Amino acid sequence: MNNLDYGIIGNCRSAALVSKTGSIDWLCLPEFDSPSVFAKLLDDKIGGSFEILVDEDYAITQRYKDHTAILITKFSDGDNIFEVRDFMPRYHKAGGGYHAPPELVRYIRHIKGKPKFRVAYDPKLEYAIGETKTYVKHNFIASLTHAEKFDTAFLYTSFNKNAVIEGREIDLTEDGFFLLGYNEKILHPNTQKMYLELERTKVYWLNWSNNTPTYRKYNEEIHRSAVTLKLLSYDKTGAVLAAATTSLPETIGEVRNWDYRFCWIRDASMVIKVVSDLGHEKIAKRYLQFIIDLMPDKDEKLQIMYGINKEKKLTEETLDHLDGYMGSKPVRIGNAAYQQRQHDIYGILMDVIYEQLKRFSTDIENGEEIWSITKGIVWIVEKHWQEPDKGIWEFRSEDRHFTFSKVLCWTAVDRAIKVAGIMNKNHKIGKWKPLRDEIWDSIQEKAWNEEVGAYTQSYGTKHLDASVLLMESYGCVNANDERFISTVNAIGRELKHEGLLYRYKNEDDFGLPSSSFTVCTFWYINSLFKIGETEKAEAHFEELLGYSNHLGLFSEDLDFKTKRLLGNFPQAYSHLALIECAINFSKKHSEEKILESMRE
């Protein structure tokens, strides 16, 4: 049983998770990081949900409308059939910009016969703290709470409002709708208007997806992952979320439960690089502006993460009244990791800046600000690269000299040199090259362990770490470098378990990890591909794709034994790595096809 059998819907302002039986178990309004309206995901007794209930005779299937974020749940007993089309409206406004209100629409499509269903509508505002009261009004159903603070939600429907609230059986003879909004509507919605919202939203997503190239192989997986990454972007500021949820545990019953509804510079920058490679330029430009807006002071260090509205303080709290996902406490909101020092973010950010300049050099806005950021990053790296940090995995105990952090410090200076070339600031190139060489010499001397035959997790240890596989991706080493090949093989031997990879095997602040961080297996597959083990890599990739949920979505982690999805969901990191692997294999198949046709 895969307990994260959910689909995500959204409109780049907020998102909801819909179970494979059509229950909305997670929704925050008006924005991604707002308090929840439904949180059954985190407490199946008091969290609140919005369910469509049918007799056991009905078979329930679920799919996305191709190349869109519209989720279709179909209910059929053979003679009686209907669909629920769940979406959050998003489309271009006539005067420019996007219509993306804090609303969720459930369009009920009658297909055949006289289907019957009941509704369990149970909103629990403000993370279900205190009581939420629901009332039937003349034009809508209103829910409100003022336990912690005042909050409201409004449900509009074409069905009998009392029947909806009381959970009475509803006979479906024609199309109908539910519209759940954060704000009271000025114009009263009806079924025809909701159908128009559905069609406009469908056209928006089809147009957006049309900019994603078509691939010879794994095209569906690439497109679904691309839409998922878009759903995790926040249009207002350009931020990109790590995931749409909080506190889904890495291991059931443990305390590794974090709020991921924030913008990690690392995750977001990697997402932007992949999405812009797919041809989606606006999202990249908005993210660059997000970064520019965050760095007003030339000597201001970047935080590793920010709120989606550029908040710098993300105070961590626990919601002790919630039982947590399958009893995994605590439920957290906010994230104390924002205070950590991680040197890798500078290299990852500089890599994105360089890629965007390379792509849009004649069309880039804010060139002066970007050059200031570039100089500032080199200054910070030069001053701090020799200091230990918390590393990519955010160890909450002592700081260490993590190899990945040093590699990304090298990357920061390397990309800054390339940016200087693009901007004709040649006097900086000669000044910065010795720094790049100094960092590289340090990595070669202190990160390589001859006894282990690999670059290790941190200086002076024998511990292996999957993040070191990214050395080749960032151009620090070549794929045919003997040390890199040896590192890939050592990591495969030591960290691979039950077909998945550990991030690392040394104990951290919470003991030995007991689940696999999904992105690490993708990194390993990509590294196998790069060193020429292409058949082995693709077989491994096919196996890993089989562990996604019924809609092709991945969370942060996979249980080694059962392969169930764990951790926050859906995870941007997992889907960007999936896209990278899939594109490599697709290009390989295209090249093989060309060679075949030439031989013919």
Automatic annotation (TrEMBL):
UniProt cross-references to InterPro entries, sorted A to Z: 6-hairpin_glycosidase_sf, 6hp_glycosidase-like_sf, GH15-like, Trehalase-like_N
Limits of the Trehalase-like N-terminal domain: 8-133
Residue span, GH15-like domain: 218-582
Keywords of this entry: Hydrolase
Pfam families linked: Glyco_hydro_15, TREH_N
Molecular function via GO: hydrolase activity
Protein name: Glycoside hydrolase family 15 protein
